[in-house]
Amino acid sequence: MPERTIDFGKFGARGVRAFEAVADRLDGLVGFVSSPVSSRRGLLARLHYLRRSGRAWEAARAAGLMVTDRTVKAWLEGKRSPSKVNLERIEVAYRAVRRRNVARYLVARLNREGRGTRVEFHPLNQSQVARPFQRVLEFRTVNVRRWDRIVEAWVRGDMGALDEAWVDDVAVDLGSSWGQYDYVSAIGFAA
Fold this sequence. Notes:
Blueprint: E1 16-17, H1 18-30, H2 40-50, H3 54-62, H4 69-77, H5 84-111, E2 117-123, E3 140-144, H6 148-156, H7 159-169, E4 183-188
Antiparallel strand pairs: 1-4, 2-3, 2-4
């Protein structure tokens, strides 16, 4: 098995870690509110989502949003605006609650009753690498049948566990060249 990339970008290659690309793609599938939290519309949408149920509000508090009901009421009525720190906490809490709420459905759609989902590996960008140092990297596809560990790590926001699950459950299926896809330009899949 090849070793993982240690000194990425030394010769000018560009890309992102594969598990980060997976996390971004999963975020894209979730369907977060598109308005920024700094806008009135985005703030109201996030606050209404977080206040929808007691469990959602408790998860928001667990994610670090520690404000009183009176403060939230003032935000909703437009009498006060949240500070920059609270806007960040609202966004983090909203994303955590939204991920948790859609995780079960997302796993079911990705697993497709054992048929799995086709994943595309787009190799890293070597356009800035001198010709003698370029590697031959192909576009690869793999059918992933078990998404449980990957989605669970993504929901928790545990990037170390996501990296481990991605390598153990998916990347090794690329064969002996799996280390060449530790960094990619994109990972593509749909649900």
